[in-house]
Amino acid sequence: MEPNRRLKQRFQISLPMTFTSLQGIEGSGTVLDISSAGLSFRTGVTLKPGIKLRASVSWPALLNSQCALQLVLEGKVVRTEDSLAVMSIQRHEFRTSGRLTPEQAVELSRKFMQMRSLHYSA
Predict the structure, then answer these.
(1) How many domains does the chain have?
(2) Distance CA 1, CA 70 (A)
(3) pTM
(4) CATH code at 74?
(5) What confidence tens digit (pLDDT) does each residue in 55-106 have?
(6) Tens digits of residue pLDDT in 2-49
(7) 2 in a domain, yes or no?
(8) Domain for residue 4, yes or no?
(9) 90 lies in which domain range?
(10) Is residue 1 situated within a structural domain?
């Protein structure tokens, strides 16, 4: 078994995401895990190492219990394998993306609690 060479702790998470590149590539996918230095995700779009991406992840927490957040990441693809892509994170920021209905807030809270239980049970 190969030792884990990652310097940053990765968190398993399953969240929808979209991405664009300077080369005009656009797509969507599902985040598999994230750390402060990188992100791995599945996508149906063919990506090549070295491509610079701007990714937007629907974050499972609310600002002031009512405003949805997007985690916006900039970095480059460092590895791909079939539908798996891994990107380094060079810049990140949270952006607001509008108020949620009470039903949407409950669903987002459920996803957040699910994410936390995955991390703390590992």
Answers:
(1) 1
(2) 36
(3) 0.75
(4) 2.40.10.220
(5) 999 887 777 877 788 899 999 999 999 999 999 999 999 988 777 677 776 7
(6) 455 556 788 888 889 999 998 899 999 999 999 989 999 999 999 999
(7) no
(8) no
(9) 11-121
(10) no
